[in-house]
Amino acid sequence: MSTTSSATTSSSAPASGTGAAPVSPGGAPGRLGSLGPVGLVLAGGISVQFGGALAVTLMPRAGALGVVTLRLLAAAVILLVFCRPRLRGHSRADWGTVAVFGIAMGAMNGLFYESAARIPLGAAVTLEVLGPLALSVLASRRAVNAVWAGLALCGVFLLSGGGFGGLDPVGAAFALGAGAMWAAYIVFSARTGNRFPQADGLALAMAVAALLFLPLGIVESGTRLLDPTTVALGSAVAVLSSVLPYTLELLALRRLPASTFAILMSLEPAIAATAGFLILDQALSAVQAAAIALVIGASMGAVRTQVGRGKATVPAEAP
Is there a contact between 19 and 6 (Cβ–Cβ < 8 Å)? Predict the structure, then answer.
C-alpha cells in the first residue's frame, strides 16, 4: 500500500515513497542510517506494506473507513507534534493547495482500504500503482512510454482474469480510484512543497484528511473507535504505514539518487503480495504473480525513461 511523501518533493515516477518527516528522537537516525540507503528504502517499503496488512486484520473490528480514520488521526497528531507547522503568514492560495492535498490524501487512503477489504493486498497495490504510472507516461510524452503502458495493461489484463472475473470488481474499481487519487496526490504534494517549508504542508494536509474522514469513521464504526485495543492497533498502522517510512526514506534520500529510489519503490506490489501471503494468507496464482511482475517491469521502465531525459524526481508515496 502506498503512503505519503513529503510535500517538499514532486514526482512523475510510478512509485510510492515518502519524504520529509520527523526524524526519530534519541539518536535513531544514526542507528537506522547504518542500514545503508537501499536498506532504508526497502525497510520503509516493508513497513508500509506490512502496515497495510495489519490494517486489513483490523477492519473486522473497525471497518475500512474506521481504520482509515484511526490511521489519519494518529499520523496527524504525530506529525503536528514533531513538525509544529506555522499557521500564520500563509495566503488563501496556500491554504487552498494544502486543503486539496489533504482531500487527495484522504481519498487515496479511503479508496485503497476499501479495495484491500475486498481483494488481495498485492492485487490492490498493483492496480493502484497504475495511477502514478499513467501520470509518468503522460508527463514524459515519449513514444517509448506507450510500450510501458502497454506492458502494464497486459499485467492488469492477466490480473483481472480477462475481465476481473477472478477479482471483486468493486474492489478493483476502488483500487483504480485510489491510483487516480495517488496521481493527484503527487501533483499537489509538489505544489504544497513549493508553498510550505520542510514537512509543514504534509502535517497540515494530514490534519485536513483526518478531519474530513472523522465523520465517516464515526458513522461506520461509532464507539468501536474508542476501544483501547482498536486505538492501539490503529496507531500501530499509522506508525508502520506513515511515520516510520517517512523517517527511513528521508534518511535514504540524503544519500540515494532519486532515480534509484524510484526504481526501488516500483517493487511495492511485490512487497505487498508478500505481506498479504505472510499475514493474511493471500496466496497468488502463477498468472497473478506474472501480472504483478509485468506491472513492476513497466514501472521500472517508465522510471528509467524519465531518468534518461533528466527529469527524474523523488516519487511521492501513497496509502
Answer: yes
pLDDT in tens, the chain (319 residues): 554 443 333 333 444 333 333 344 344 444 544 457 778 878 888 888 888 888 888 999 888 899 999 999 998 999 899 888 988 888 999 999 999 999 998 999 899 999 988 888 878 888 887 787 777 677 666 667 677 777 777 777 776 655 555 678 899 899 999 989 988 887 888 788 788 887 788 889 999 999 999 999 999 888 888 899 999 999 999 889 877 887 776 667 667 665 566 666 667 777 888 888 888 888 777 877 887 788 778 777 766 666 555 444 444 555 5
Q: What is the largest CA-CA distance in the chain?
A: 55
- Alpha helices (runs of H) in 16-141, residue ranges in sequence order: 28-33, 37-83, 92-116, 121-128, 130-140
Cβ-based neighbour number of residue 283 at 10 Å: 12
What's the grid cell of residue 64?
475500512
The structure's pTM equals: 0.73
E strand or H helix at 158? helix 144-160
Contact 53, 279 (CB under 8 A): yes
| CA atoms of 8 and 200, how far apart (whole Å) | 9
Residue whose C-alpha is closest to residue 70's, from 264, 231, 267: 231
Q: In whole angstroms, what is the distance from residue 45 CA to residue 42 CA? A: 5
The three-state secondary structure class of 90 is coil
Which amino acid would we find at residue 81? V
Q: Which of 220, 280, 208, 186 is nearest to 64 (CA)?
A: 220
Distances (CA, A) of 304 to 135, 137, 226, 259, 267: 15, 12, 46, 7, 14
How far is the CA of 19 from the CAs of 128, 146, 209, 258, in angstroms? 20, 29, 18, 11
Residues near 223 by beta carbon (within 8 Å), at least 6 away in sequence: none
